[in-house]
Amino acid sequence: MPQEDQYSSWVGLIYVFNLIVGTGALTLPAAFQNAGWLFSSIALIVLCFVSFLTVTFVIESVACANATIQWRKIKEHKVDESEVPLNPDSESENSNEETAILANRRRQYYHLNKKVELGEIAALFLSRTGHVLFFASLCIYLFCDLTIYVAASGKTIVNLSCKSSNNTENFTESCWEDSGVTRMDMYRIYVALFGLFVGPFTYFNVQKTKYLQIFTISVRWIAFSIMLSLAVFRLATYGQQGRPSLVNIAEVPALAGSSIYSFMCHHSLPGLIAPISNKQGLMSKISMDFSVICGFYLLISLTVSFAFETIDVLYSLNFMPTHDSGFLMKLIGMFLAVFPLFPMATSFPIIAITMQGNLKHLFFEPYGIERHGFFMKRLLFPSLAIFPPIITALITHDLKGLVEITGSYIGVIVQYVIPAFLVWSARRQTVKYFGISAHKYSSPFRHFGWFVFVLVWSVVCIVFVTVDLIINHS
């Protein structure tokens, strides 16, 4: 990778942090309060650990993919194995010897310097059926993700433009006094406008630049810092307003969905770790990232759970200014209410472009079709990426339900099941090639029992959430 495209490990960790702490973090506090502060705290820590566990599976899978690509080049006689240079990041056990033992040399094939996306890894290690299921799962997740972005944006603009309401979930109220236009009418108009103004960028090659990343991170951190400070101030000034229970099993689906959604980074991780210049101790550094994020989520969720009697599904709307707010508080409240719109609007076309790429893989690659015309490439697939989420958002404004379904079902598959099967298949394949069972990017959770644990945990999550949803809606 060219040196100008690389960045330090700390910049890479900031990018990973920014990828994880997104819209999901705004939906977490309400679910946390409703499910009970003690149960939610324990559940959040456990879910953070399982998410990190499967992140190490993704990293190991990327290293195995790079090793496999290198090995296939050797077998095709494009590269002489004896001339393959050692990986500059490697820690050779025989660094003082000019020629390493073959096993040690092959161990150096495992690296993270080449960007290998999850789709490529799936193509390398999974069967055709597994390959199709992988892309189908990823497309469904991205569809749900885009729908959440559209619905959250529409809801935010409704609350900014319509009269103040004690219940932001009541969309049957009129938007303005004696107008005859309901909040639901305006919500659908705003969703359509969002699609009209943001959707067209999907038809072009839009990329998130380093400067846009830095700006997004800055705005997000300023907003979260203000929200945390205001919650602490509210606690210190007015005392405890919220009375969350210790445990409320009825709200587990919402907590599971929000928590899993709030730790999601697996589908985009390979593209972020490849440009990191120094990958020594990468897993330890990412574990620090997850620890900080988990602590941050706990700090935010616990303070607001006791500071507010009720929390909006989109937490930033709790700071909407009221008629008796001072000028400064109105300004701050308006900023906090508006800030989610920017990252959602800038991320929507990028996620949609990712989705159309996965749709092409899903419909063409299994059948060996490599070329498709202008209509397919520039019109059909971009339209398939943006119209279904917009239509779904027009039908429902239930942000809580969308997050529940996305996190509790398809999120479990993308975050837990896919990484587990990828690393299991990658290990089997690379052991056949190299006869090596461990390397420097091996997950610390290499034992087969961890693979079984992730699958059992996934089944437990889905069954538990499903049973709870049935009981609550029966």
TrEMBL record:
Protein keywords: Glycoprotein, Membrane, Transmembrane, Transmembrane helix
Q: What is this protein called?
A: Amino acid transporter transmembrane domain-containing protein
- Name the lineage: Eukaryota, Metazoa, Ecdysozoa, Arthropoda, Hexapoda
The residues covered by the Amino acid transporter transmembrane domain are 8-60
How would you describe this protein's topology in the membrane? Multi-pass membrane protein
User: Which ranges form a coiled coil?
Assistant: none
- Location(s), subcellular: Membrane
Q: Which family does it belong to?
A: Belongs to the TMEM104 family.
